[in-house]
Design brief:
Distance between the termini: 104 Å
Number of domains: 2
Largest sheet: 2 strands, antiparallel
Radius of gyration: 33 Å
Number of strands: 2
Length: 200
């Protein structure tokens, strides 16, 4: 603060350097993309802490230009990209740990998808049994009115089967509790996939 009393031609260079550094730090203290503190420099004020943040920030600010440049690059270097992807996949699939990780990731994603689709089905058809009006979700099941549910589930598997139930407009499905569903299987003699009963 004492240096401010001196005239401009008597002020040393260190004062001016410190002034510019303070001005820069007040303007761009943190990186605009990642939020990290920028290293203080005497050059032009830097909005980003590194080249990576600069590129990412430009992509966020200019999505159309980024999309166009990406399309041009892919058109020019199709064979190069395919070759690189093949090499990467060979390295990954040669590792047995990668297969285990991949399997677990797929299981998690399918479970989440099936849970979401099942909740949508209950919203569509109601959260009650069609016969006894039982309302506990743990015991509710999707029933085929005309039978043949097990065959359809085996062919399509859970996620695709749930999607088909959601898209249905003919009224082929209903919601029953576990008791009513099993009673229907016993009473229906045409159902091939019904339970086998042994009397003693």
């Amino acid at each position: 603060m004492v240096l401010l009393l001196y005239p401009s031609w008597l002020r040393p260079k260190q004062y001016w350097l410190g002034f510019f550094v303070l001005k820069y730090s007040m303007q761009h203290k943190n990186c605009l993309f990642c939020g990290k503190v920028n290293p203080l420099t005497t050059k032009k004020p830097r909005k980003y802490c590194s080249k990576k943040c600069l590129n990412k920030g430009w992509k966020v600010q200019n999505p159309k230009k980024n999309k166009e440049s990406g399309q041009k690059y892919r058109e020019k270097n199709r064979e190069k990209i395919k070759k690189r992807n093949r090499e990467y996949l060979k390295k990954q699939w040669s590792d047995p740990d990668f297969r285990e990780r991949r399997r677990l990731i797929c299981l998690k994603s399918t479970r989440k998808r099936t849970k979401a689709l099942r909740s949508l089905i209950f919203e569509k058809y109601g959260l009650k049994c069609a016969e006894c009006s039982y309302s506990d979700i743990r015991a509710l099941q999707i029933d085929h009115i005309n039978g043949g549910g097990n065959v359809e589930v085996r062919k399509l598997k859970r996620p695709l089967y749930y999607e088909k139930v959601l898209q249905d407009k003919k009224g082929l499905y209903q919601i029953l509790c576990a008791n009513c569903n099993w009673i229907k299987r016993f009473e229906n003699p045409k159902e091939k996939s019904g339970p086998k009963v042994f009397y003693t």
